[in-house]
Amino acid sequence: MPNDRLLHSTPPATDTHPSAFANPDVGTASWFVVGRSDEVPAGTVQTTTVGPRRLAVYRTDGGDLCALDARCPHLGADLGQGRVEGDQLQCPFHHWQFGPDGWCRHAPGHDETPERRTRSYPVQEKHGLVWAYLGGSPTFDVPGPPNDTQWWTLRPPQQTIECHPHLVIGNGLDTRHFTALHGMEMTGEPELSVEPPHRVQVTLQGRPESSWLRWLTGTRDRPLRASFTTIGGHLAWTAVEQPVRFYVLFTGRPTPEGHTRTQVVFFLPRTLGPDLIRAVGSMYVLLHDDRRILDGLDFTGSLTDQDRSLRAFETLVNDLPRL
Ligand code: FES
Ligand SMILES: [Fe+2]
Fold first, then answer.
1. How far apart are CA 105 and CA 7, in angstroms?
2. Domain that holds residue 46
3. Does residue 119 sit in the same domain as residue 199?
4. Does any ligand 1 atom lie closer than 6 A to the CB of residue 98?
5. How many domains does the chain divide into?
6. Is 284 in the pocket of ligand 1 (CB under 6 A)?
7. Same domain for 156 and 280?
8. What is the mean pLDDT of the chain?
9. In a 10 Å sphere around its CB, with 0-12 CB exposed, 13-18 middle and 19+ buried, how is residue 148 labelled?
10. Ligand 1 atom at shortest distance from the alpha carbon of 75
11. What is the CATH number of the domain that holds 37?
12. 162 and 125 assigned to the same domain
């Protein structure tokens, strides 16, 4: 006869997600990638989603970027289907026009402009991408590489991963999987550093168990050393210090289904030369097989004491301002 207590050892779904962490119903404040700079030329608009929210991202005729909640505060048309007029966005339905601050500035047929407003979001361009901040005023910035070198910036196409963004962004903090999944032999204890309210960092050192991967990554004589830092719940910064110095920015935007739309940015030294192959090899060692596992994750909130860094990440995420 089955043990009833065992069968019910996992609490029902409503109790497993009381917090913001990995909860598709609760958004947390962050910068989110809402497009590539070259996708929004002057005088154009496009619609993007961040979780259940729809944003109209437009560039004024003068070249300034703006991000507004896409729901028109009149009858709810999608402002992303509208058109840019000067520095204003015109709704496609009744042609009300909204300024960069979201206030209605003009409504055809009205003697007085209706006091209606759609939400506006802080927006910036960085690394060839358009970023919008959801969750009030920005309390941190999008990270970038040190400016001691000319960096070659690569932005591969976005991908969708079928689990919550917090699980994608926290992947590098999950030190134990580097041995189990990625076949890394650790050459030192991972170091954890927690900097509330936004940052959790682990630094680790190790080399592939496979001898050909050691050859490929240049780690036969010295280990690979890297740090993974989460900034809020939707950005992660990877700094590989050895055998080749380079950086990777991971971003995860929630889809309306609660999955993750990722945009990764690589920063490689322009002088990399033959070391490029080592950098690519190191990324392979650190990332291969993650996609398959992350796509299949069905998180139930069951972290253990061994998941120290992930727990620290969960705690910080739960304390972030909510959307
Ligand atoms: S729905 Fe936008 S102006 Fe009417
Ligand atoms: Fe991984």
1. 60
2. 30-134
3. no
4. no
5. 2
6. no
7. yes
8. 92
9. exposed
10. 1
11. 2.102.10.10
12. no
Ligand 1 pocket residue status of 96, Cβ below 6 Å: yes
Task: State the ligand closest to the CA atom of 71.
Answer: 1
What span, in angstroms and rounded, lies between the C-alpha atoms of 259 and 275?
35
pLDDT one-digit tens code per residue, 273-293: 778 888 888 888 888 889 999
Q: Tell me, yes or no, whether 287 lies in a domain.
A: yes
Q: pLDDT value at position 25? A: 94
Which CATH number characterizes residue 208's domain? 3.90.380.10
Task: Please give, one letter per residue, the 3-state secondary structure of 167-233.
Answer: HHHHHHHCCHHHHHCCCEEECCCCEEEEECCCEEEEEEEEEECCHHHHHHHCCCCCCEEEEEEEECC
pLDDT under 50: residue ranges of the chain: 1-14
Residues 261 and 193 in one domain: yes
- Is 10 part of any domain? no
pTM as predicted: 0.92
Give the pair of three-digit tokens for residue 242. 């050895």
**Token pair in block for residue 129:** 């991408």
Residue 34 falls inside a structural domain: yes
**Is residue 81 lining ligand 1, measured as CB closer than 6 Å?**
no
Structure tokens at 30: 């962050």
